[in-house]
Design brief:
single chain, 319 residues, alpha/beta, 4-stranded parallel beta sheet, two-stranded parallel ribbon, 10 helices, 12% strand
């Protein structure tokens, strides 16, 4: 047997052993959180929302790291084992966590309770105000519901219901109390965003992003979605030269010179528009699909939405 084959078999054995230890540790109370009920959440935005509701009533494990891309992050063997040993799994669904879906499905099939937040948020489909639609994914459900805080209020209420229904050992009164408090904070956020966006003249309420992510925000607060550098709802797609030409024509027609690009993604594609349109394009970074670490400007959902609202308002009202 070659050294390479032996090394590969050893790595496989170690991964299996680690997964087994996680399972055994959880069953015997020696794993993370000991005997406390466990909730596993796929994305860090949903993770923050869930933690606000759970408080100290259960252990909440979030699979997606800060500043990661929900479309491309994957799981380790340990994380996959966490999913199958959770009391409840909260995930976005609608194709957002493209590399995690099969693991969530495996957990569900093994009997773990799961909650697909995106499907419960009255999902919209991808669209733009320009002829031809958004390109790849047109007509598909849009998973980026969190850009509308009112939909997050609905989802947060449903998460609290699922926790009470499926997670044994939590205090229902404490969960309801936390959910009610957080709902008030989300309502205040929605009101503040509406007042902030009111400062943007009607003619400037047009959005161009690095990929289609703000459809729900546009629907809630009265923006027009002109297009995206990547004509898709996922960062894993790539634009063609004809896509870029179509977008620049749409921007020129709408007199839009500002592009919003996710801070976790390189702005190279958005920078291409500067060359296509003669250099006069303002690229504004937003935290659209991932929270940052604490102190990074978008450590919580509320902080992220306030930072984005401020950046969008300034970006669309500046000279």
């Amino acid at each position: 047997m070659s050294v390479r084959v032996r090394a590969a078999r050893l790595r496989a054995l170690l991964l299996t052993l680690v997964a087994f230890l996680v399972v055994a540790g959880t069953a015997t109370g020696c794993g993370p959180g000991d005997d406390r009920p466990r909730i596993v959440v796929t994305t860090n935005i949903l993770g923050d929302i869930t933690r606000e509701i759970v408080g100290g009533e259960a252990e909440v494990s979030v699979l997606m790291k800060p500043n990661a891309d929900p479309h491309s992050f994957g799981l380790s063997a340990v994380q996959a084992a966490e999913l199958e040993n959770a009391d409840l799994v909260v995930h976005n669904g609608l194709g957002l966590e493209e590399n995690v879906t099969r693991h969530v499905e495996a957990a569900r099939e093994s009997g773990v309770a799961t909650f697909a937040a995106g499907a419960a948020a009255a999902p919209l489909t991808f669209h733009t105000d320009e002829e031809g639609g958004p390109g790849d994914g047109a007509g598909a459900p849009d998973p980026h519901f969190w850009t509308d805080p009112d939909r997050v209020r609905k989802v947060a209420g449903l998460i609290s219901d699922r926790i009470i229904e499926h997670v044994d050992g939590v205090d229902e009164k404490a969960i309801r109390g936390s959910a009610e408090r957080y709902d008030g904070e989300l309502a205040a956020l929605s009101t503040w965003m509406e007042k902030s966006f009111a400062a943007i003249p009607e003619g400037r309420r047009a959005l161009v992003t690095n990929h289609h992510v703000f459809g729900y925000l546009a629907d809630r607060f009265g923006f027009r979605v002109i297009g995206a550098v990547i004509p898709s709802g996922t960062t894993l797609a790539s634009p063609s030269s004809s896509d870029l030409r179509s977008l620049t024509r749409a921007m020129e027609k709408a007199d839009v010179r500002t592009v919003f690009a996710d801070s976790s993604q390189p702005t190279r594609l958005a920078d291409v528009l500067r060359r296509e349109m003669g250099g006069d394009v303002n690229v504004v970074p937003l935290h659209s699909e991932s929270l940052t670490e604490k102190g990074g400007g978008a450590g919580t959902y509320l902080e992220m939405m306030r930072a984005n609202t401020t950046a969008m308002t300034e970006g669309l009202t500046g000279d």
